[in-house]
Amino acid sequence: MVTLYVLRWAMSEARAVAVVTVSDRSFRGERSDVTGPVVVQWALANGWNVMEQRVVPDEVAQISDALLELCARGLPLVLTAGGTGLGPRDVTPEATRQVIDREVPGIAEVMRRTGAEYTPLAALSRALCGTCRQTLIVNLPGSPKGASQSLASVETLLPHAVDVLRASHFDHG
Amino acid sequence: MVTLYVLRWAMSEARAVAVVTVSDRSFRGERSDVTGPVVVQWALANGWNVMEQRVVPDEVAQISDALLELCARGLPLVLTAGGTGLGPRDVTPEATRQVIDREVPGIAEVMRRTGAEYTPLAALSRALCGTCRQTLIVNLPGSPKGASQSLASVETLLPHAVDVLRASHFDHG
Amino acid sequence: MVTLYVLRWAMSEARAVAVVTVSDRSFRGERSDVTGPVVVQWALANGWNVMEQRVVPDEVAQISDALLELCARGLPLVLTAGGTGLGPRDVTPEATRQVIDREVPGIAEVMRRTGAEYTPLAALSRALCGTCRQTLIVNLPGSPKGASQSLASVETLLPHAVDVLRASHFDHG
After folding, report:
1. Taking the complete model, does pTM exceed 0.80, yes or no?
2. Which of A105, A123, A142 shows the shortest C-beta gap to B172?
3. Residue C135, domain CATH
4. Tens-place pLDDT, residues A113-154
5. Which domain holds residue B147?
6. Which of B24, B92, B121, B124 should one mutate to test binding to chain C, selecting the residue with the greatest count of C CBs within 10 A?
7. Does residue C1 lie in a domain region?
8. Cα nearest neighbour of B160 on chain A
9. Is B5 among the domain residues?
């Protein structure tokens, strides 16, 4: 029984996620955050435990501070939503770049390539994905539809990605 | 009527483009620039106003100087042609990297992926795309065919991209 | 006859390759290197002359030292195998980044995109490709299957890539 509890606790740790919405308007309360809840819903439906959900403005320092804090806590996955486009205030990838120690370009490639099946504008997402210590950070687009399609395209990858990232006992040759 | 003129002027500003051919030989006048005119023709046929066309040699400093000058003028789009391959003198992406403040990887991904339908060698284009202030810079291959195919693959994206880049009134969340 | 010998020598120089396996366990002799020999076999079957094969541990300094030494020798192609994943010790792309002067993103894009036809996990390869002086460096995954599939997806590109990289007589405009 004790073993089972420990296993359950370990599993919940291994599937912990934080969701960070990046939006000036939502941060100022001028617009309700629609995409954050969509991402949370996806997480719950896919076996992830949402440990935290927050909204930050489109500022490099505030985005990277939030990411660093969540990585320092050792969360396996952090999903950001918004700020990945070409708008003058869109700087989520730049903030993410400052925080990651290793880039994982293939995750963003899959999201854009799959998105292109829905709209050619998916190519304009500048989403960046990478690792910060034991945390995988994945940038998602700011629209609910874009975020959902991006998540669907990589949802089979993410559990494996965080498991490999946190493994320390076997050789990844 | 005045409104109409202002609108027309604003539209022409919003669709202004400069074309920069990067080639030692064309710069020295040893070979006529074939690809530059092909890009100009594409621009005219797609509703872009060609504000300037120039030829620079395959030198990082001269390429980046040209790009910085065109960006400082506030042109929404700058298309370069040439210098994206593996030849010893090909440094257009490196010069572009020095100038951009934000990368837009998806545009180059689409150009290479679409190019692969014609020739596997399309993967060797090191084309880089990104923004420098209010300007989108897109590297194109140096061959007329490569440049045309690349442009065709992203021509629906470019108007939207420059519109979003120059927008300052709405939230891109 | 002399011309023929010179031509043969020149051809063998132009298709020289080194294979570097990156693996802590294989370096320590705790596991036999399976992927290195698979890459060597591919090279021999595809007209490449394998000049050297070595195993290095998953350490940025030791990987980049090996790459720099092989590039200094002027080898046209260096293939690495392993260390491209998300495992805590996987740093081959970071070591490669330190060494290359120009990135060739399309080669890694093709390897990941083709790999996705076999397994969605191919997106997690962080393989980086680029040039260091006259040498093309290509990161391959550490599994024999992953390395083979990656090589198959780019084998038609590689001879052309190294030929262009070493050409110094014609304009790549």
Report:
1. yes
2. A142
3. 3.40.980.10
4. 999 999 999 999 999 999 999 999 999 999 999 999 999 999
5. 15-166
6. B124
7. no
8. A121
9. no
